[in-house]
Amino acid sequence: MNNDNYPTNQPTGSDRSLLFIVAVAGVLLCLGTAVAGFFIGRATAEPQVITEMETEEVTREVEVTREVAVPVVVESEAREAPPVASEESEDVVEETAVEEGEEAESEPEVDLPTLRLEEISEIDFDLFYEVWELVDEGFDGEIPQNQEILYSAIEGSLDTLEDEYTRFIRPEVAARLREDAGGSVEGIGAFVRETEEGQFEIVRPIPDQPADLAGLLPGDIVIAVDGDSVEDISFDEVILLVRGPRGTDVTLTILREGEPELLEFTITRVRFEIATVESELLEGNIAYIKLTSFDQTATEKTVDALESLLAQGAEAVIFDLRDNPGGFLNQSISIADLFLAESVVLFERNNAGLDQVFRANDGDLGEGLPLIVLVNGGSASASEIVAGAIKDNGRAILIGDITFGKGSVQQVYQLSDGSEMRVTIARWYTPSNSTIDGEGVTPDIVIEMEFDAEEDIQLLRAIEYLQEDQ
């Protein structure tokens, strides 16, 4: 399987002593320029690893120099994971497919809509100066440093787009995300997400890591970190508070359903590797493969695991995408291709005229094996691309909970100060030409997991289904 033809990339997003005029100039600069990368992934509401992997968006990563109009160069994440679906549209005009061993053909550049810089440059910032002059003269309190004012102005202006995936990532958070992409992180070891209510929820502690050993449970809500409330700070800021150097302690105040009082857990941070793929041969010659993230090694490691299990006598596969937050677009396509014969994987479209179909080809290792795919509410973005493609093509049964519901593709721009800008550039659709945005993929067999369940009833049902089928 050759992945080079698939669009790529993920990233998967200070000195505050500047004059106000510099801050305003910075706003204009950020609005008018960018340095890019495609990212497939999930939304803010997606799980992050509190080591932490945030729910990743389907992305494509591209490096360019600062220009107003940036052509999208398709390499091979996410966004943040796969592209997102939005409204239905007409048949796709272009098709992209690559046979195993074939050299990837370069994809056409897509002209993105240029920013309306003429209109932005006509904005009268006199009111902005007028407001801050009054604050500077009379405010009875501490005035933020100029960098904070600049960042807040950027974030506030982006809120007018009403798109939670188009967002500005501050330098310290962007640095953490880049660190996480390497697979080795320092933290407490838990998948987390931001709920619809804006709360910081533990999705799943990683087995045998500090959060798990301390007693945190899925569904726990973090109310405070080291005694300070997290109610009025952003999700990314909470992540930064929870993370820290290995060997140091962090105290989390937890709201747990069914408990009359708040709970406190003091956890010592550690450094550990996040395994992209976990695998084992189950009883009955069933290959169990869990993919935790669609990073740029996902396909290679999944193929290696499958080859190893087949050599041990595996005759069927359970492919576990639960709590997988997404990743690179190219990886979602090639993973789907691993299990699909020639067929459509996804459609990708935008308002700028992009209208493309990505296809799987015959001849891959997992195509003829009995297959079950496990999903849940933590399966987002790239995970949903794979699940939607497998379901719509009738390739396998999906078991678990309804998935997260992210159907958009983001492009990631790396800015001059180390911050990142993520912009929604397209929507993706399943092979049946449907959007999963805000709805998710519904499994063929819906089984809801209880947080305090002693057994993995979704996995047990998958094993049972395969045994019945045999």
Q: What is the CATH superfamily of the largest domain? A: 2-enoyl-CoA Hydratase, Chain A, domain 1
CATH class of the largest domain: Alpha Beta
- Tell me the CATH architecture of the largest domain: Alpha-Beta Complex
In DSSP terms (H or I, runs of 4 or more residues), the helix count works out at 11
SS-based class: alpha+beta
Mean of the pLDDT scores? 78
Count the strands?
Answer: 23
Shape: globular
Report the helical percentage.
Answer: 10-25%
Strand percentage, roughly?
15-25%
**Major beta-sheet overview:** 8 strands, mixed
Query: Runs with pLDDT <50, length 5+?
Result: 8-56, 61-114
The fold-level CATH name of the largest domain is 2-enoyl-CoA Hydratase, Chain A, domain 1
Q: What does the radius of gyration come to? A: 23 Å
